[in-house]
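Materials and Methods. Structural model of FERM domain-containing protein. The 364-residue sequence of FERM domain-containing protein from Macrostomum lignano was retrieved and submitted for structure prediction as follows.
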Amino acid sequence: MCSIFSAASTREVDFYVQLLDGNKKAFSLPGNHKGQDLLRAVLNSIGVPEQQFFGLRYQDSRKTLQWVNVRKSVHSLVKCCRGGLSDLVGEKSCQLFLAIRFYPNDPCRELSETTRLQVFLQTIQDIQSGAVVVPRDKAPRLAALMLQSYHGDFDHQMGFPLNNYSLFADLRPGIDSEVASMYRMFKGLPASRAEYQFLSHVKWLEGYGRVNFRVLLDDGSLSTLCIETTGIVLRSQSASGSQACFFWPRIKKFQLKKHRMVMKVRSKAELWETCCEHLEFFRSGIDPSFRQASGNAASSEAAETAAYRRPRRREFEHSDQWLHDPRQQEASQHQLHLQQQQRRMRNSDPYRPFMSDSEAVTKN
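The predicted structure was written out as tokens:
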């Protein structure tokens, strides 16, 4: 029985993966390999080094796209993705789709050109599906940058290539003349730079990297839970339209209790401690943890550490009040003026070593 199970688990499984550019590639892996091995093989075939942003999707029996659990074996994926194979030849093959699962917060930084190209292709699909909302004033520039990346410089003999795409179909033909003029303006721009400029605009648009879920809160009100690159946003569907934001560093963990999901957020004490550490870091430019580890540092470093002591809770809470209080600012400037005047008198008076500060002021 063990030998039969081993033979079945090592039998190779064929996969057809549709890439983000629309092309399909065939892959074959033993059944006992993990889904992560399949994802790695797909990304290595197109030369993508940053593989942590990507995932594979399949169509279930209801024609709904689901994410592949890459921790499971390849053999278990066959049962999951067998529902969307009506257009494929062969009963032992599976259809998968490559997609961006975790969007980079800033796709224009710290990404290779190959990875940035995949993010560029994914965002175009998001715009076509309506997941990313493009304002009317930005649509011509984005369409021209897409054409510059796909077709290169504008060619009169080629005609207007935007007719071959469904991008901004609801705004056309009103923006065709603007797209054509901007397309001519980008002449000579390399494809990689066009994709860079495209993403530099898209990353600020409504819906970039967002996954929406409709949830029911404890008070019985309907809300939309938006998973974004910066954190989680709860948008109320009531007339007020209020929302609550929870950034990723503030969230501790999630718990699933039957049909209820509980999100635990850092307490106020932990939040205050984190804010104090960041305040201390940006004041001194030295990491607080590094400062604590270097206890045997030189006396100059110890003096610098003492100068940037951790603020008390009351000081931290009322620091803004001091900054915006004109009376406090005026008193502080007056005190600074007196100190500068006393310093000038010390340097100019020959009897300064035998006189106190108050006597020097009285003498003048």
